[in-house]
Design goal:
Elements: H1 4-8, H2 10-14, H3 21-31, H4 39-46, H5 60-64, H6 71-87
Helix pairs in contact: 3-4, 3-6
The protein binds iron/sulfur cluster.
């Protein structure tokens, strides 16, 4: 980790608690790894108050990364995953009996 993205990111500059661009690249790497068993916990950390929603989409991280990683794209993907999981229908608390008549 070189830290160039943190140096270029106004959200990281203004909020020391923000997890930052490189952390989101790493988080996405594990979120998309089917062998990783901590998906929900990891997603909830990455989308916490200090996570992806702190990003203001300035895209400086994408511009300065010497490894040509794309933290902005990682952040967008994590946001989509988080919103998708929040919109997923919850299972009914009391499912009707299978033989119940309408
Ligand atoms: S994402 Fe790129 S700019 Fe940011 S720390 Fe990693 S290598 Fe450096």
């Amino acid at each position: 980790m070189c830290g160039a993205c943190y140096g270029a990111c106004p959200s990281a500059r203004d909020n020391a608690a923000y997890l930052g661009p490189h952390a989101m690249v790493k988080a996405l790497r594990f979120l998309e790894d089917t062998r990783d068993g901590t998906g929900e916990e990891r997603l909830s950390l990455a989308a916490s108050d200090d996570g992806v929603f702190r990003c203001h989409s300035v895209f400086n991280c994408q511009t300065v990364c010497p490894q040509e990683l794309d933290p902005s794209a990682a952040i967008a993907r994590i946001r989509r995953r988080s919103l998708g999981s929040r919109l997923k229908p919850k299972p009914a608390r009391h499912a009707p009996a299978k033989d119940a008549k309408p």
